[in-house]
Every structure is written in C-alpha cells, then in structure tokens.
Amino acid sequence: MSKTILIVDDSASLRQVVGIALKGAGYEVIEGVDGRDGLTKLDGRKIHLIISDVNMPNMNGIDFVKAVKQNPTYRFTPIIMLTTEAGEDKKNEGQAAGVRAWVVKPFQPNQMLNAVSKLILP
C-alpha cells in the first residue's frame, strides 16, 4: 500500500513538479492550494507526510502547521517546509510550530525525496 503525502502550495507549477517527483517514487499525492484548503484535506484519511509552502494567501504555512498540530489525528504527521524563505527567523518560527525539515527552493527533487523518506510515517 502506498503512502499519502499532502502538498500545500499556492503555485500550481510547484505542486506539479513536487507531485511528479513523489508519484515517481511511489507515493500517493493530495494537493491543497493554500493553508485553509490544505486543512480541508485533513478529513480523517491517513496522511503520512505534509509538504507545505510558507508564503501563501488566505492562510500561510506557519499558521497552517499550527492548525495541523491542533488536530489530534494529524498532530504527529511530519511536516516539511518547501519555501524560498531561508531566514533563520522563519526557520525558528517553523520549528517552534512543529516543522521537521526545511527545504529551500529552488530544490533538487532528490534532496526533497531524501527528506521525505527520512521523515515519512511508517
């Protein structure tokens, strides 16, 4: 049975690139267009990992992570931030919210898949 990953990013092209890489590695992919939309995808089904952008309309990535961590079903779901934000302040804010890894764009798909395979829930 394949594992499911939720990608939350307001860039359709980025969701596509990440989705292709993940599907190529055998993962199921669900997409959310921003933090608020991402939360609607957390509907009780098993999600093994979340990849989220930081800067998005409606609800940014940090607020999204905080909301995910409030949800008992997904509290322990590992979250990777995939973002152009390389600043230490944002990273620290992300870590405090519960982010497990920080991948800066532009990224190599292998680098991202490596982080995914290390963190994904069994």
UniProtKB/TrEMBL annotation:
Highest rank taxon of the organism: Bacteria
Domain Response regulatory: 4-120
PROSITE patterns found in the cross-reference section: RESPONSE_REGULATORY (PS50110)
Residue(s) carrying 4-aspartylphosphate: D53
Keywords carried by this UniProt record: Phosphoprotein
Coiled coil, from the record: none
Protein name as catalogued: Response regulator
